[in-house]
Structure formats: structure tokens, C-alpha cells
Amino acid sequence: MRKSTLLLSSLLIAGSLLLSACSENGNTDAASTDTPANTAATADPGAAAGGTEAPASPAVVPAGALSEPFTATDLTKLPAVAQKRTDTIIVGLTDPSGAFTPYFQESGYDGNVSSLLYASLVTVDDKGVPTPELAESWDVSEDQLTYTFHLRKDLKFSDGSPLTADDVAFTWTIQYDKAYDGGSSLPSLKVKGGEAYKAGTAETIEGIKVIDPQTISVTLEQPNATALVTLGSNVLSKAYYGKDYKFGQLEYIKKLHEKPLGDGPYTLEKFIPGQEVRLVANENYFKGKPKTEHFIYKTTTGDAWQFLETGEVDYASFPATEENISKLKELGYVNILPYTPSTYGYMQVNLKHEQLKDKRVRQAIAYGLDRQSIYVDAAEGAGAVANIPASPISWSYTDEGINPYKYDPAQANKLLDEAGWTVGAGGIREKDGKPLSIHYLASKSKNSDIFIAVAKENFAALGIDFQPEIFADFNSLVSKTESGDYDLVSYSTSMLTDPADGFMQFFDGEITDYENPKFVELYNKALATTDIEQRKAVYKELYQLFNDELPIIFTNYKKTVYAYNGRIENLSVSPFIGLAGSLPNWTLK
């Protein structure tokens, strides 16, 4: 089970930040062109917790040839099948696994679904600042250790049962169960008494206090800048998910995946693997029943252009090239939004493999791959090369002291020579009798085809035996990655709100073989304060460290345009929670 994708559902946005619909490469992907996001977003609690408010990040960044939203010019051109829909909106999505229970999901695509089934205690606004959701307010102690949440009155789960502080306490508690192996970062907050509960030496968690049905507090052992939104994630029904709970036994929850009980804007009507996920409006949603009765995730594999042109989907995303924007405008019936998401692409490195343990080899790969051609030129400028684990729209972003690793085969060959890899028979480098070989994994896509074509030439010039392996579906890619049979695998993150998000995969069990005490020291230092300027200085050091060490090899940032049915009203997009925040208010005019 891929823990970093599980993390998507365990934090604040619980997948709501993932809603992104059809992919940029012709497949019905949701989060990225290669995979769903592998790190989840949390928000910086600075303003709410007594620190400095994060600087605003632009909600929409100019992309390609479109710098302002474009409004549909002729809705009469809308395909008949889309015109006939009166109470249903359809969005494309890569096929999820069906594990729609937060904290127990198997992929980020599961999080796309649960984003509509569950609400959070706390969400974030367009600046990434925490705002109330199920919790109408909260208090934070002066020492930044105790958080007290005040729930709204009369909250209900979708079956009409009450949602109270007991449900929140249960949700936090099971994440400290010794049997819990999901990707939640809540245990990393070090709730007082959490480890004693996990060890079985305490029957409850000392730091969790239910004060009354609408009030609950939790005390940490040390300050953590992400605590507010991590604690403020989804809430599970104790009566439903905790009915059969026994300490050390959580397998039973898997049986409940097929019939999730949430408190979000929609409820699950039917899941047909490989075809669709059908959702219906929740009459008990605390903000009121959504405006559109039915919402469908179309999970059939296909071409995004075709689905949009035939009216089979109401929303799709594409690279922000001039050609794509021109074609979309010509359709006449779609609104277009330019957008630069708070994500980055990267190649995960198998640090268990001997040839990749040497950072000089990793640096040689960065120098030796023509990333400008792969991710920018081939995308007609709808992208940029990435060199740190943060998006340019992040308040923490910096390029000061950052090596751009511009394409330089000579430098790459020099580093490989220094690392002891000498060119042998057939032009392939060798060391200790073993060839320098790279087994590369990726999902099937146009982008993967481009990467492989360029990488073959680039690696051949370096004397590296390049062995690509492409998977038709995401779950197969994950299984292969988990087996450890790879050297490099391409991924992209989800939307990142807090800078800590870009490093979570090194703590949640996804990447286990990068050991650097300086990294851990700086990471913890950045979380120990809510002051933005102090955190920014620490993250600068972290980015410089990762830019040099390259425990993952950074690839690209994307520039995107969203195209959607011109009949849809009230649609907006956030750089931190995507479309899910506005979706309950979508209407078809």
C-alpha cells in the first residue's frame, strides 16, 4: 500500500484538493499526467495560531497564451448529450480502487471521491490560511500545544446521525492504533499519550479531551506548524466505523469501504470499477444540499478531447499551449481558466540500489537529462523545469543558491567518471563488473512517450543502459513500485499548501533509505514555529540541501488550462483545494 498516496486522505483536505478531472495527456486522469499526487497538502496555521499570516499566492497564474478567464461564446454548439443533462455534472477520473474511507485509502484517486463524501473540521482559503468548516472556531494555547475545536451545532452524517466531539476523538485515536498502517501524518504531531496508547499501556490517549458534544481539545508534546490542519481533517462516525473496533484490529474497516458514511456534500450511490463513480447530493450536508443533484466521476479510459467534444464530460484540463487554447476557444461552448497549480513533478529514486546511493550519479542524471526539451519545449512552453520540492507560487519558493542543473552532458560524464563508472564494451559504463543500468517506470501517456524518446538518447550519450517499463493503469504502476523492482519512477505531487508537504514522503514510509541528520534537523526546525519569515529561512536551507543531495530528481512544473461546460455556474478554482471547495455550489443554467 502506497503510504504517500494514502496521506492524501489523512490530512485536512482529504482529497478535496485533488479534484482536477481529465488529464492533460488524453487519459482521464485527475491529479497529474503520470500519477495521482503523492504528497498531501496542509495549510500553514500562522494567522490562526498566533503566527504571521502567509503571503498571498495567486489563485490563477497566467499560463500559455491565456492570462485571463475566457467565457464561452456560443452555447448552441454544446453537444446535445450535454445540453440534455439537467441535474448531473460529469468529470473524468482515473479509476480509483474503491477504498473511499479517509485514512485507509489506496490511491490519490480514492481521495478525489472521498473529497465529496467527507468534510473537514478546518479547510483553507485561497491564501492557504485555515478557515472554519465543521469546526466553527478554535483556540490555540499560548505555548502552541493545546488546540480546542468548537464544532457547529446540529452537525449530521449523511444517514442523519449526529456528528459530535466523540466522533472526532475516535478519528484521532484509531490513527494511534498499533495496527494502523495508513499514511496519516497525525501520529507525527506527537499527541500527548499517543505512544502509550499505541504501545497498549493506556486505554485512552491522555492528550485528547472531549469537553462536551461540541467541544474537544488535544494537547501535543511539542509545537508543530501544521498541527491545526492536520488535526482538522475528516471526521469518521464512531457509531459506524467504530462499532466493531478493538485495539490492534483495524482490518474490519476495509469491509466498510463499499458503503462509506460521510458528512460531505455528496453520498456514494454506486461504484462501477472501470466505468464510473455515481454520487448523489447529501440532504444532511451542513452547508445545505448541493445545487446539482448528481455528480459522476467517469473512470473509463479515453481521450480528454474526445470526451469534451462529444459532451461526455463537463470538465477537462490541458497543457496551456497556444494550440490547445485556440482549439478550446473554437469549440465555443467551454469556459477556460488559466492555472498554475502548486505542484511539482519528480522521479522517485530507489536509494536501495547501489548505483543510485552515490549522489554524483543522481546529479549526473539531472545534468544528463534534457529536461528543458522534455518538459518545456515539447509542451510548447506549458511548463517549467523544477529543481526544488516547492511550486513557484509557494511563499517559501526560492532560486537563491539553487543549482538549475542545465543540460550539460560533459558535466554528467565527468561526475560518472568521478564516481568510478568507466565506459566498457558496447559503450555502457561499468563498475566492479556491473553495468550502469536504469530501470525506469511510468504510466502510459503522451508525456511518457516524449520522456522515453529523449531519455534514450541522453542516457546512451552517458553510457547508461536505459530500460523503460510503461504501465497502462496506475494500480499496476504502484504495485511495481512497491515491489522495489525499479531505479526511477515518475510521479507528480498533489496541490501543496504548506512547504512541509513536499517532504512528507520521507517520513510516511514511502522513501525509507535517505538518511541525513541535517535534513531531519531542518525539517523539525521549520515546523517548530508558525512565524513565516523564520520558516522561510529554514526552507531555503532545506531546498538548497535537497537541490544538492537529490534524494529525488526534480522534473517539472505545469501550466494548465481548465475547460468546462459553459452552462456550469459558480465554478471557481483554488491553488490549494482545487475545485472541490466550489463544487457544492455548481449549477447548470
TrEMBL record:
Signal peptide: 1-21
Source species: Paenibacillus borealis
Cell compartment(s), UniProt: Cell membrane
Membrane topology of this protein: Lipid-anchor
Entry's transmembrane regions: none
GO biological-process terms attached to the record: peptide transport
Lineage, broadest ranks: Bacteria, Bacillati, Bacillota, Bacilli, Bacillales
Tree of life domain: Bacteria
Protein name: ABC transporter substrate-binding protein
Keywords: Signal
